[in-house]
Design goal:
Elements (H helix, E strand, L loop, with lengths): L1 E2 L2 E2 H14 L3 E4 L2 E7 L6 E5 L2 E5 L7 H7 L4 E6 L2 E7 L2 E4 L7
Antiparallel strand pairs: 1-2, 3-4, 4-5, 5-6, 6-7, 7-8, 8-9
C-alpha cells in the first residue's frame, strides 16, 4: 500500500523491525530517523515524515496489551492521532481507509 509516494507497509515493517531489535534509528531511503523513548510510557517510537510508529504498551488494559504481555511484538502506525496500520509479529495490516490525503 502506498500513500503520497510512501510504501506504508515497507516503512511500518522496517520501523517495527528496528524498534524490536533495539536499534537506535531506522533508515528509510537513505534517511535516518532516530528511535525515541517516550518519557511518560518508556515506549519506543519513531517518527517518519507525517507517520509515527510506536510499540504497544503491555501495561494497558486492552486485548493488544494482553497479547504484548504474552510475548507478541506489536507496533502501531499513526497519521496524526489516527491509527492507520498495525504490525504484529512482523505481519502488516492496514486499518480501514483512515489515511488523510
Amino acid at each position: 500500500m502506498s500513500e503520497k509516494g510512501i510504501d506504508l507497509e515497507r516503512v511500518a515493517k522496517e520501523a517495527f523491525k528496528q524498534i524490536f531489535a533495539g536499534a537506535k534509528s531506522v533508515e528509510i531511503d537513505g534517511k535516518t530517523y532516530p528511535i525515541e523513548i517516550l518519557k511518560s510510557s518508556r515506549l519506543k517510537s519513531v517518527t517518519i515524515g507525517e507517520y509515527q510508529v510506536i510499540e504497544q504498551n503491555p501495561k494497558k488494559e486492552s486485548q493488544w496489551a494482553q497479547k504484548a504481555s504474552e510475548g507478541h511484538k506489536i507496533a502501531w502506525m499513526f497519521q496524526g492521532r489516527k491509527y492507520i496500520a498495525r504490525v504484529m509479529d512482523g505481519e502488516f495490516m492496514l486499518l480501514g481507509k483512515k489515511i488523510v490525503t
